[in-house]
Design brief:
heterodimer, A: 2 domains, 14 helices, B: abc type-2 transporter like fold, 2 domains, about 10% strand
Chain lengths: ~375, ~375
């Protein structure tokens, strides 16, 4: 036990001695969480629209006014030329072109068939889809309004649809993203610190000195794990404080449960780091491997893009992704107040993986280098 | 000049000697691009939903069939009561529940308003929004087929320019490419210098007749070459595996890629002048760059929707401009005149980073 404490003490001294490390560990996560959470928003605002008006009538002007009055659209030019709009799309100045045909006013009012045309820059497919959807809704509203005014009676649709948004009625995107970004920061710090640790001693040569001490393998690994576990929990606490007090993310479930899960999860991540550390020879290698996995883990965690949309093989791959389980748990517990029973499967998987990976790390670490 | 080549060949030897790093360096981008190109999509299909059917008549059945046949939804569960909705949500199994009201068919035939309630799990607001919109559209179609007509004869045609099938791959391949290039380049240079410092060999380089400028340049050149090879591999993958169109000019694309890689390498140099150990260099380049590049560059989330201040900050990222450039060249076939501003921004940022690096470069170690 004493031996473990000595190792822990040594590690803390080494970390806290490094002047650049402290701001990296404390300030950076807070700043990133605070700033980046504002970016992670799929809501599409400020859509730049160009209108090709070939009708120049009262009706077309009314439609243009309605569009530019909406919160989502910014009117960027009206003219009779389609090419002018296309040129703007080509130069990334606008996102959508709405084309109003000749005789729009006449045809609409006399109930004849008329047709509006929307062209969107679809390179960002998500944004294009949503922009078109907004625009269609505005046009539909507009046409019912105009029809009602003219006395053409709009028959109500036969099905009344009521939409309810549970757990987040205001559709606040930050509630969804902040816990996820928190998970990422905690994971990355834990993984990189532990992944570079033993291999650093190897590279500098100090591992020899540790190897000749009477310390046992498991004591060594535990001694290396503990400081990072404490740092990880510390990071998590800072993140949680920012999430609750700055972003006002609701905390419906039990904080104890969340800490318990974080604890087990950190042991898993640190174990992965230790394992990487034991199989590599230089910090550079360790770092690239850690980086490789963290990019995969992050982008395939369901944090930014839904897992259900992935192809089946990719969905299966995410079963090996620890971040996926943690993101699920933190969202369930914080936003839906899920209890232990709802997340017991995630708990079991992470616990099992943590035991397995740490065993591997201990077995793989050779005292005789 | 000769000393310079000697130095560059030293760097290459270092790189080629470490086989594992080499494999990681070239293999990793390929794996990442393939994985993400296929797996990351914002399109939503197969959303798991539950249905609570309070009518259980032929019309409500028909509506359910229509929902299931759309391809967007998978009916995971048929519920029996309102209470079960909450239970299904709290295990995270379903994203949305559809409640079909009492006497659905009867009301529909007799011209009363039949009721459908859509309960979405809005803890993920984006998915909630998209899938409830899909569902609304399906229900509207169902209504139309049931014979209720509207007097307005207005049709809206839409066209998806540059990407007729609205595939999100076109969005993600350039994004993944940018991120990988940026991180690999910045990381590689920042680590190699920090490594010389940590191992003590920097001392030897500094007392050698090589001037600091030559040392810096000698560090950049080999990695510039490696990164350009990486960039080409990723481009080929984009073209042949993901069938990205290439409407623009290759020389232009090549120049832009080199420019971007150069700016990332110089950023790496700057980080390395600030860091003494590989660990700090790595934490700086990785933690400091990874999330901001992913989130602020417009790779996943549209920059134009962010708060103003973040839009200004995003202008400082070469990655943001590079993503616009690649998409414009490849998908729109834009020439230099359309992307002159974006290119100028990258040049400017690179230039500023370069000046900072030269200023910060320490000739003596403490």
């Amino acid at each position: 036990m004493r031996r473990i404490l000595y190792i822990v003490q040594k590690e803390f001294k080494q970390i806290l001695r490094n002047k650049t490390m402290k701001p990296l560990l404390i300030a950076m996560p807070i700043i990133q969480l605070a700033i980046l959470s504002y970016t992670a928003d799929f809501t599409v605002r400020n859509i730049n629209i160009f209108v090709q008006d070939q009708d120049h009538s009262v009706l077309s002007q009314k439609l243009i006014n309605k569009i530019s009055a909406s919160d989502n659209f910014i009117l960027n030019g009206v003219s009779a030329s389609y090419d002018e709009g296309f040129d703007k799309i080509q130069k990334n100045k606008i996102d959508v072109i709405l084309s109003i045909p000749e005789h729009f006013n006449r045809d609409f009012n006399s109930g004849r068939h008329t047709s509006l045309f929307i062209a969107a820059d679809a390179i960002n497919s998500n944004k294009a889809g949503i922009s078109i959807n907004y625009l269609q809704n505005i046009i539909k509203d507009f046409s019912s309004e105009q029809a009602a005014k003219k006395g053409m009676i709009e028959i109500r649709s036969g099905i009344e649809v009521v939409k309810r948004n549970w757990y987040n009625p205001a559709l606040n995107y930050k509630f969804f993203m902040v816990p996820g970004i928190m998970v990422l920061l905690v994971t990355m710090i834990a993984l990189f610190l532990s992944g570079m640790n033993i291999v650093r001693e190897k590279e500098i040569g100090t591992i020899e000195q540790l190897n000749v001490t009477p310390i046992k393998k498991y004591q060594f690994i535990i001694g290396k794990l503990l400081p990072f576990l404490i740092i990880g929990i510390f990071e998590f606490t800072i993140g949680l404080a920012v999430a609750l007090w700055w972003f006002k993310v609701p905390m419906l479930g039990s904080i104890t449960l969340l800490y318990l899960f974080t604890f087990v999860y950190l042991i898993l991540i640190l174990g992965i780091g230790m394992f990487i550390s034991t199989i590599t020879e230089t910090q550079q290698q360790a770092l690239f491997i850690a980086w490789f996995f963290s990019v995969i883990f992050i982008l395939m965690s369901g944090l930014f893009t839904p897992i259900e949309s992935m192809p089946v093989w990719a969905q299966k791959l995410t079963l090996f992704n620890p971040i996926r389980y943690y993101v699920e748990v933190i969202r369930l517990v914080m936003l839906k107040g899920s209890s232990f029973i709802s997340i017991k499967l995630n708990f079991a998987i992470i616990t099992f993986a943590a035991l397995l990976v740490n065993m591997l790390a201990i077995l793989n670490y050779r005292k005789t280098a | 000049m000769k000393t310079f080549f000697v130095f560059v060949s030293k760097e290459f030897k270092h790189i080629f000697r470490d086989k594992r790093t080499l494999i990681i360096l070239f293999g990793m981008p390929v794996v990442l691009v393939i994985l993400f190109g296929f797996a990351i999509t914002t399109e939503i299909n197969n959303a798991h939903i539950a249905v609570l059917d309070l009518s259980k008549d032929s019309y409500s059945r028909k509506l359910q069939d229509k929902i299931a046949a759309s391809g967007y939804f998978y009916i995971e569960d048929e519920l029996q009561s309102f209470k079960e909705i909450e239970k299904s949500f709290s295990t995270g199994k379903i994203k949305l529940a559809v409640v079909i009201g009492n006497n659905f068919g009867k009301k529909l035939i007799t011209g009363q308003n039949a009721e459908v309630q859509i309960v979405a799990d809005a803890s993920d607001p984006n998915t909630a929004n998209i899938i409830s919109n899909y569902l609304m559209a399906i229900i509207q179609n169902f209504t139309a087929e049931s014979g209720v007509l509207s007097p307005i004869n207005l049709n809206i045609e839409t066209r998806m320019l540059y990407n007729p099938e609205n595939k999100s791959v076109f969005m993600f391949v350039p994004g993944v490419m940018t991120i990988i290039l940026m991180l690999v380049s910045a990381m590689m240079t920042s680590i190699t210098i920090a490594r010389e410092k940590e191992l003590g060999t920097m001392e030897i380089l500094l007392v050698s007749p090589l001037r600091p400028f030559v040392i810096t340049l000698g560090k950049v050149v080999p990695y510039l070459a490696l990164s350009i090879i990486n960039a080409m591999t990723i481009l080929l993958l984009g073209l042949f595996v993901f069938h990205m169109p290439m409407h623009g000019s290759y020389p232009l694309l090549f120049t832009e890629v080199s420019l971007f890689v150069l700016s990332s390498l110089i950023l790496g140099l700057l980080i390395s002048t600030l860091a003494d150990t590989q660990q700090t260099a790595m934490l700086g380049s990785m933690m400091g760059l990874m999330l901001p590049t992913i989130l602020l560059s417009g790779f996943i989330f549209p920059v134009s929707s962010m708060p103003m201040i973040l839009q200004y900050i995003s202008n400082l990222l070469p990655a943001k401009w590079f993503i616009i450039i690649i998409k414009s060249i490849m998908l729109k076939g834009a020439g230099l005149e359309s992307i002159a501003f974006e290119t100028a921004m990258i040049v400017l940022i690179t230039f500023i980073l370069g000046i900072l690096t030269v200023k910060k470069f320490k000739i003596r170690l403490e």
